[in-house]
Amino acid sequence: MAKKKSSNKTKTPPPAAPTGVEFYFDKFAAAHQNTVNKLIYTIFIPLLLFSIFAIVWTVQFPYIKFLGQYNADFNWSSFLLAFMVYFYIRQSPVLGLFMLFIILIISYVITELVQWQNSDGPALWQIGDVVFIISCIALYIGYKLEGKKLSWEYRIKNMLIAPVFLLHLVLKRFSVKY
């Protein structure tokens, strides 16, 4: 009977799934190389973020008795804000706190637009819709200029990573560690 030769080589475990915010930044940067596309997403990603918050802000929130007088101050964008800040803080606490600050500025602008709406200005949902449509068209043009096919899962992650990627570029320029 022949003996089986045993191999002294140990199998190397498969590489762990890449995690961390740097992985997403590298992947995002690799997918966005065209200079015109870079300009497009630098302008329209923040506008898209603003428009999503504006649209979600206008969705009617049900009356909840225990909120009492604060019921008017609570809306669906509060949940969106909480989800996004949680996601960003899990990636990087420093970036998460900076994004919280930026989202609070967006919320302030939206409250000012609501006051304008209440004094016979345009409806917030109309402003949000127009900015959303223009941003989506511009980002689609940038996507076509880039010419790369991206999976659906990657596009969804890009929607969360893109705003913090722009923040990462700003912080990197000022040598802020995150």
How would you sum up this structure, described in words?
This protein is mainly alpha-helical and 178 residues long. The protein has one domain (21-63, 70-173). Helices cover 68% and strands 0% of the residues. The chain is built from 6 helices and no strands. It has helices at 21-31, 35-57, 76-91, 93-118, 124-146, 152-173. The chain starts with 20 loop residues before the first helix and ends in a 5-residue tail after the last helix. The model has no long low-confidence stretch (mean pLDDT 86).
- Compute the number of strand runs: 0
Q: What is the percent of helical residues?
A: 55-70%
Strand content: under 5%
* Sheet with most strands: none
Q: How far apart are the first and last residues' alpha carbons, in Å?
A: 62 Å
Oligomerization category of the chains in this entry: single chain
Looking at the structure, what is the overall shape?
globular
Number of domains: 1
Order of helices and strands: HHHHHH
Helices, by number, come to: 6
* Low-confidence runs of at least 5 consecutive residues: none
Mean pLDDT: 86
Structural class: mainly alpha
Query: Radius of gyration over alpha carbons?
Result: 22 Å
